From TrEMBL:
Residues 93-111 have a biased composition (Acidic residues). Residues 40-51, 79-91 have a biased composition (Low complexity). InterPro entries: Autophagy_HostDef_Reg (IPR052428), RH_dom (IPR025258), RUBC_PIKBD (IPR048569). Residues 1-23, 33-52, 58-114 are annotated as: Disordered. Keywords: Autophagy. Residues 243-444 form the Rubicon Homology domain. Residues 1-14 have a biased composition (Polar residues). It comes from the Eukaryota. This is Rubicon Homology domain-containing protein. GO terms for biological process: autophagy. It comes from Scylla paramamosain.
Length: 450
């Protein structure tokens, strides 16, 4: 703003340019005199250390256009001199003058008005000015070169994860004690995300590991004496009123834990324990929401349950038969009743014989699940045995080539090849000498031969 005001005044008054030229010549003469005195080793006079170089009313008039304000930090007043504490010795002032002389030589090719303004600003010798700091920073950074993006080593390359496709976070963290922040955050278009760096509310998760007993004081200390649900912080003597959640393994306040009970999935899978235990309100809703989801693969999690529970073992056999019989039912145009019956049942009953939901395990414990699966399986097998369309899709044992068509759901008398899924009699089949696999390998080698 001062430069614009000076530029307008300077352009309107032609006589100011002549005054400024005379001031510049005086300035250059004084600088050269300073340089000669330094080279000769002579001491500077006391008048040069106390009197500013451009402390003339004319310089102040063309530079600012108006008397400078006291709070200005970048321009010195015409009637004031810089404090003597800025320079510890005479050599500091001479070196500062030489720096300015070098900068004035670099700006010889710039327009006259800009050079005049720059030179007069440097005459103030204010080491704390913003201009001086900026010039020093530019000198340091001009000598260095920032590396290119291609030269940097990234953990994930641009080809693997394009940065433009990554979503930016649009949520803000809200702590349990930030009531004012929540009301203020409602005015923002961002979504709120509960949790801070030292506390976070429980998240929906499937826990299949048994919880080890822990003392209340030790667990509450790890929770920073906060409720695991709402984050309310209490003193140590009030933590005895908190209640333990047997699903999440954390302590909750009486508001977040109403002493309601639920069956713990981890205890069912590990110990076949269907006893209800106290859980928090959040855990109760979570267990109820996933009660019908086939989340538990008994064969992978704990195959010993088949030996422990007889009903579960029978359920596994009937579901395996249903799994092998379902492709015949789906491709048969005459199995409309069987298709309607299967449509009203969960799909995982036939699609994955080892997948169970919590409700399936509870029904298997009671014995009702076995009867329902057995009824559907027998109905499908009877249809395949009587239907000519389904019978035409059966297998003929390629080893003995005798008997009627056989089917994979005949678990006691047939065996399947793990590679090609061909069906054979149990007494005829050898896993290492499957006729279909040998035929495929021979055909493959013949095609590769030149």
């Amino acid at each position: 703003m001062q430069f614009n005001a000076w530029h307008q005044k300077f352009s309107s008054s032609p006589g100011a340019a002549e005054d400024s030229d005379e001031e510049i010549r005086n300035l250059q003469a004084q600088i050269q005199e300073k340089r000669r005195q330094k080279l000769s080793g002579a001491a500077a006079t006391s008048s040069m250390t106390t009197t500013p170089i451009l402390a003339t009313p004319e310089a102040n008039s063309w530079f600012c256009g108006s008397p400078p304000k006291p709070e200005s930090t970048t321009d010195c007043s015409a009637n004031e001199s810089p404090p003597s504490s800025y320079y510890n010795s005479e050599s500091d002032l001479v070196s500062e003058t030489e720096d300015f002389d070098q900068e004035s030589e670099d700006l010889e090719d710039t327009p006259t008005e800009f050079s005049i303004s720059t030179k007069n600003r440097k005459t103030s010798f204010d080491l704390t000015s913003a201009e001086k700091v900026a010039i020093n920073l530019l000198k340091n950074f001009n000598e260095q070169r920032l590396p290119k993006a291609s030269e940097l080593e990234w953990l994930v390359t641009e080809e693997e994860a394009p940065q433009k496709l990554l979503p930016l976070p649009t949520s803000i963290a809200v702590g349990p004690e930030d009531g004012c922040a929540v009301s203020a955050a409602k005015l923002l278009p961002q979504s709120q995300l509960r949790g801070t760096s030292d506390w976070a509310p429980p998240r929906p998760q499937l826990i299949l590991t048994l919880l080890t007993p822990t003392k209340r004081s030790a667990m509450m200390k790890t929770q920073d004496w906060r409720c695991a649900g709402c984050g309310m912080k209490v003193s140590e003597h009030l933590s005895r009123h908190f209640r333990f959640c047997n699903y999440l393994g954390r302590y909750f306040c009486t508001t977040c834990h109403s002493n309601q009970t639920a069956i713990i999935p981890a205890r069912v899978i590990q110990k076949w324990d269907f006893k209800p235990y106290p859980v928090s309100n959040f855990s109760l809703e979570l267990i109820e929401s996933m009660k019908c989801d086939p989340l538990f693969n008994v064969s992978a999690l704990n195959c010993g349950l088949y030996k422990k529970c007889r009903n579960l073992q029978q359920t596994r056999i009937y579901r395996l038969q249903l799994y092998y019989a379902l492709p015949y039912i789906n491709t048969c145009s005459r199995a409309n009743n069987e298709k309607k019956l299967m449509y009203n049942r969960p799909q995982h009953w036939a699609s994955d014989p080892h997948a169970y939901s919590l409700e399936d395990l509870i029904s298997a414990k009671n014995g009702s699940f076995v009867g329902e699966v057995k009824k559907i399986t027998k109905l499908c097998i009877n249809h395949i045995a009587k239907c000519q369309v389904c019978a035409g899709q059966g297998f003929i044992c390629e080893i003995c080539s005798e008997g009627e068509p056989i089917f994979p759901f005949q678990l006691d008398s047939t065996a399947l090849c793990a590679t090609c899924s061909a069906c054979y009699h149990v007494g005829c089949f050898c896993p290492l000498r499957c006729p279909r696999c040998i035929r495929r390998e021979t055909r493959h080698f013949a095609e590769e031969a030149p």
